[in-house]
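Thread: zinc ion complex, take 2
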Amino acid sequence: MDQGGRTRRQLVKAGLGGAAGMMLGAPVVRLAAAPRQAAAPQPVPGAGVTGTPLRLSEDLFVVRLPGEANVVARTGAGGVLLVDGGSAAASDALLKTVAALPGGGPVHTLFNTHWHPEQTGSNEQLGRLGAAIIAHENTRLWLATDVTWPWNGQRFKRLPKIAQPNQTFYDAGRPLPSSTASAVRRELGVRYGYIPDAGHTDGDIYVYFPEQNVLAVGDTVSGQGWPVVDWTTGGWIGGIVGALQRLQTLANEDTRIVPGRGPVLTLADLKAQSEMYGTIYDRLTQLLNKGRGPSEAVAAQPTKEFDARMGNPDEFVRRAFESLWAYLSPDA
Ligand SMILES: [Zn+2]
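Output below.
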């Protein structure tokens, strides 16, 4: 996938010019040398503990179906706007729930915050119904190709054309200073834009509802447990730190921030997470600079003081460490 590859290389340059610059002297280990270990599925704390839709304002809801990622729904006379669409298995239930919301109805617009199947499972159904599906161009590219996660062999089939985003944008021709948001798009009563740090994937976007002061950020922020660091499609631990800093510039004290999983967060939560991941990033880069590998990084317990609250960190630490390799490898 040429374009995706170019994108990642651009991000590598961006990363090396920024926070990762300190690692330039580190031993560079080719990605292909990364050990391929089977990952035990991580239990999601609190999974299944869901209730009725959470009402954030007159016309804005977080729909939380059992075991599913958060979906943000804005109702209106012209229909419903969704940020993320749950998994394919839950798509029917989701669209029924959305239609039954106060002021609910058919969906005219769906944003994909990134390509993962937990967010794009309603694309096919809504695409067939003629909805606008808006995403970053990298998200469309990942959805148009088969993806395999090397760490556990999990395969993701490409989506049919009708299910792929049909309105994409691409703002990341060059790295942006971390203190600024990328080009902001204003339409449909929302502002949205690219989060070019690659905190989760290389196609992450946010959607901000200015009237309601609600910021939907997908899995770029985890509200529940350790995140998946999907370095196969561009995510990395330095990007988590960068994205958390960038998103703070889009929020104020009253903004309600809806992550991909878990409860609604505040600016204070973003600050706390930013510090935590910054600490972990520093520790992992120190281990990398000492020539350590992922298993040694896990053994060093770089997340020790956070584990009681966050859960077993082993898979997260392993993926986060591998993501540093991915960003330092010339072929990544
Ligand atoms: Zn995700």
